[in-house]
Amino acid sequence: MARPRYRGVILDLDGCVYVDGSPTEGAIEALRRLKSLKVKLLYVTNNPELTSEDCVQRLKSIGIDCDASEFLTVGEAIARYIYSRSGPSKVLIIAGPGVEEYCRRLGHRVLDLNEWEEADYVIVGFDREINYEKLTAGLRALLKGAVFLGTNPDAVHPGKNGPEPGSGAFIAPFKCMTGRDPIIVGKPSRIIMDIALERLGLSSREVLIIGDRIDTDVKAGKSIGSDTALVLTGITREEDLPKIPPELKPTYVFKNLYELVEKLYP
């Protein structure tokens, strides 16, 4: 059997593997085919609410076989990035519970809001419990000199009943109040993508990046020099293709994961 052109794939989850909790057309069969060919899989998600264990539970519930080692969440990436910069650190988190969980696992001290003066880092992302106290604590910590980290810049993401505020909407007030831009760790940042390549043990040329968003998934793939595949099961639709700027055009466009695997892994 000839070796597959791409020895590994990095996939997005929402809009690529599933939509509204249901697998996209042919996704189960496509992922099973990739595993049978010994293609290395890594699911990379910007969702700050999830841990790898949460992701496993979600995929297994819709019939997709997987284990925790096949996931990289933005929460884990941020915790690892902080550790690589300064070892165990003091963090003020204004983001989902997945971020807090990984910060604790890596030995960072998660601060209470009234401990903002001690913060080495302020981490901001999607937070269902955002409130005035969090805005104030984050503002004061940043003005005191804490490093400003953002999970990802997406202002809006799809919800079950329509669009919902994304992590970028939670980052925006702090940018407005401080005049500072955060270091973005999740897609499309190269930070999370370099961690992903390290996890797979492959070079960027050996990996295909797959997702449903041009501004997140395709841009992330291009940041590391990988080929990219856009699937039309999520945010980007066929009518959007002519509007894609030349520098962000994907290597491939497929209607879904099944067609991708059918064409690239016959």
Describe this structure in words.
Helix content is 36%, strand content 21%. The protein is α/β, with parallel strands linked by helices. It folds into 2 domains: 117 residues, 3-Layer(aba) Sandwich (Rossmann fold); 110 residues, Rossmann fold (3-Layer(aba) Sandwich), CATH 3.40.50. It has a 6-stranded parallel β-sheet with strand order 5-4-1-13-14-15, with helices on both faces.
The CATH topology of the largest domain: Rossmann fold
- Backbone CA Rg: 18 Å
Mean pLDDT: 95
| Beta strand % | 15-25%
Report the CATH architecture of the largest domain. 3-Layer(aba) Sandwich
Q: What count of domains describes the coordinates? A: 2
Largest beta sheet, briefly? 6 strands, parallel
CATH superfamily of the largest domain: HAD superfamily/HAD-like
Briefly, what CATH class of the largest domain?
Alpha Beta
Give a short overview.
Helix content is 36%, strand content 21%. It is α/β, with parallel strands linked by helices and 266 residues long.
Give the SSE layout.
Elements lengths: L7 E4 L6 E2 L2 E2 L3 H10 L3 E6 L6 H10 L9 E3 H13 L3 E5 L2 H9 L3 E2 L10 E4 L7 H12 L3 E4 L5 E4 L2 E4 L1 H12 L4 E2 L5 H11 L6 E5 L2 H10 L3 E5 L20 E3 L2 H8 L2
Parallel strand pairs: 1-4, 1-13, 4-5, 6-7, 6-8, 8-9, 9-12, 13-14, 14-15
Antiparallel strand pairs: 2-3, 10-11
What labels describe this entry?
alpha/beta; Rossmann fold; five-stranded parallel β-sheet; 9 helices; 36% helix
